[in-house]
Design brief:
- With 173 residues, the protein is an alpha+beta fold.
- 41% of the residues lie in helices and 20% in strands.
- The protein has three helices and six strands; from the N terminus they run H-H-E-E-E-E-E-E-H.
- It is elongated.
Length: 173
């Protein structure tokens, strides 16, 4: 539940489940006299409590703020905002509306504050076997429910896949 990134509430409730489990194992450690089981699960309980605070408290507030801005945007005459975190897993289509993949990350230049490139995942199943490609910012059009590329699927496929953990500091179009 935590790795799937299904939102702050789902992740937070995952930590609640983990906390209940670690408390139960700590109780087993106390009742059986196994100090190592008690110590390990006491520590895990603390970690899980931090996770609960983080995901059901702080992150939930962030998500609610983003959702309220999105809701206000939907009521406006013209869509104007979406949260940057939504780039992860947002649908990406080519210049004819054909599916290309999903958004992974947008890299922002520190000096200008502008997006340098967007990383798009394609292929594979559930992340296994997928390829990541960097699409220059001028080839991406941001919409509220998807990213649209100004290039075709074939041109996207011609972009060099990114090496795992070795993304470029800059991508040129």
């Amino acid at each position: 539940m935590t790795v799937a990134n299904l939102g702050a509430r789902v992740t937070g409730w995952g930590f609640v489940i983990f906390a209940v489990g670690s408390i139960a194992w700590a109780c087993v450690g106390v009742s059986s006299g196994r100090i190592n089981l008690l110590a390990t699960n006491g520590f895990l309980t603390l970690v899980n409590l931090v996770g609960i605070w983080r995901w059901l408290g702080q992150q939930r507030a962030y998500d609610d703020g983003g959702d309220s801005a999105k809701s206000a945007r939907m009521q406006a005459s013209e869509p104007s905002l979406f949260t940057a975190i939504k780039i992860a897993a947002i649908a990406v289509v080519d210049d004819r509306g054909e599916p290309v993949g999903t958004g992974v990350e947008a890299l922002i230049a520190c000096a200008s504050g502008e997006i340098s490139y967007v990383v798009v995942a394609s292929g594979g199943i559930a992340g296994a076997g997928e390829e990541l490609r960097a699409v220059p910012h001028n080839e991406v059009r941001f919409a509220c429910e998807q990213l649209s590329l100004t290039i075709s699927v074939a041109a996207f496929g011609g972009l060099t896949p990114l090496a795992d953990g070795d993304w470029s500091a800059e991508v040129r179009s």
